[in-house]
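Thanks for the sequence, V.! I ran Sulfotransferase right away. Repeating your input here for the record:
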Amino acid sequence: MANEWAGQRGANTAQQAARLGEPAKGGAASGTVEAALGHAARLLARQPALALAQAREILRAVPGHPHAVLIEGQALRALGRLDEARGVLAALAAAQPRAAAAAAELGLTLAALGAVPEAIAQLRRAVALKPDMAHAWQALAGLLRATGDEAGAARADVAGIEAASKDPVLLRAAMAMGEGRLEDAEAQVRARLAAWPADPAALRLLGEVLWRQGEIEAAVPLLRAAVARAPAFAAARELLVRLLAMGPDVAEALDHATRLVADDPEHGGHAMLKASLLVRIGDQEGARDLYRAILARDKGRPRVWLNLGHVEKTIGNQAAAIEAYRRAAALDPATGEAWWSLANLKTVRLDKADIAAMRAALPHDAVGGDRAEDVAQLHFALGKAFEDQSRDDPAAAESAFAHYARGNALRRSVLDYDPARTEAAVASHAALFTAPFLAERAGWGCPAADPIFVVGLPRSGSTLVEQILASHSQIEGTMELPDMMLIADRLQARVEEGEFADMAALLTALGPEECRRLGEEYLERTRIHRKTDRPYFVDKMPNNWQHLGLIRMILPYATVIDARRHPLGCCFSGWKQYFARGQVFSYDLSEIGRYYAAYVRQMAEFDRAAAEAGHGAVHRVIYEEMVADTPGQVRALLDAVGVPFEDGCLAFWQNRRAVRTASSEQVRQPIYTDAVEHWKRFEPWLDPLRVALGPVLDSYPGVPADW
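Predicted structure:
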């Protein structure tokens, strides 16, 4: 503000000096006054009383000096002496009608006195004189919002953000962030906030800097403060949505995304962001409507067609999904996800023209540069196309396997996975969750019986189990929920921060009350996914087998279903599946074999411990047995949950609920036997998988005798 005033009077320094009794610029007295003014300005934030004394000392030497009068008014306002401040600043504003700073300070003082219309008038005058006064814009926005002028407040918000973004300190900080000098950027923004704590632009920039440093929990409150201060600050709200979406606060993220769309209905990016959140909470129809609205304005967006295809598939509109995927592929043939999504429907056979189009889209280089992910998905789609041909032409199996192998190699090259870590975790789990440990904790945790966890490996028949369960009048199907894994990750973070030596030490230290709270937390976190009043719901996250002991500690009455399939069928099916996220173990035949063996070992160890402890048994569904005797297996499954048999569970394919997994189309038809031994067409190339599985393969569906 001192700089603003200096600029105001810099054009006519000699005349002002003569009028105020100062020597012309360059004289010794002028230098002394300027130094004193600078000192007074620096005192304002921390010691306004001293700033007031300094300003009045200057005014005794140079009566009427406009900058000293301004500091006097500012100090009086900071000290709460508002009537005095109004008198000083009103006189200054009248004497200096072109001084934006005087008008701004008078406006702020009038606002503090409750004279809202007069404050608005002075702030409008200030920003008209000097449009880059961010603090005046932001104060004006607050006053307009208080009077109900939301449109005017939003315009002021935007103008204030634009003005603040030109601040040299923030520009330097943004440049430092862009160059990766995050500590320098943080220091500069924090210095800015020390002088101006409520600056939304600085709050947002610091939030982004902290996010880039991995400190999401510290970034979120800053972004919340930014949008609270400037509700029309779309960039801050959008970043807040993206950070909230990384954690469990989906509901809050959706609220903010809804505001973004309401503020700018034509903004496709905001609509896409909201649609992705609707998908996460299971509102596929809402997401579909948003995607269709975007495409009504612009049909040339392959990514939107692709996302529309995903929700149409999930809802069960297969024809609409196929059309959307083909539109995406036609607009950009190199979009591997479009081709893979078609192939992944499992009911579409890609023909020779499709194969030619995919081959033409493959890059000449081996990796594919920036589109490596698309290249990998193209190979997976080509693998499926040739696999379908191999039903009639056995020679095509070799081409299919070669494309699958190439796609897996590309995907595996960018993933961090060490099978030894999984095997070590299994050993630790078995060592901790012994029969005495479980017996001692019997009845701990939250007593709710709502959750039904379906665990195992992907492609094990778990979606079939879920669809059967969700066809019961007392059971709601949701999807693969991440919440148990997120709770486990948070506990692991306490270990990594040094609070406990390892996870076993942490879990051992948990008492009954903390176990109960964790169970209640899981129920609360998953509530957003429950759309009915059915007493039970299915969580089909297969990886939850790794947290079986934790589940038993915090939700002892939950049902756990272990969906298991022949090792070669399950692992090969998983290996030739391109997963949207997670399942990092599945892109190498040896690694997926070791993962399957580790899973079987942990489940076997837990079965023994639970049996000895007398509670916590897991119900196992063997896929091949479900295919061979569906009525008998369905009855046993429902008995395990504790609900009566219903015929609708045998007609599960008639259930039109949304299904988000790779098996979505397969569970919309009666059980068929084709997939049970489909791996045999590829048997010549599965030796690495056989070796990795070891004795688990020969003992299936049991477990090795020495386990």
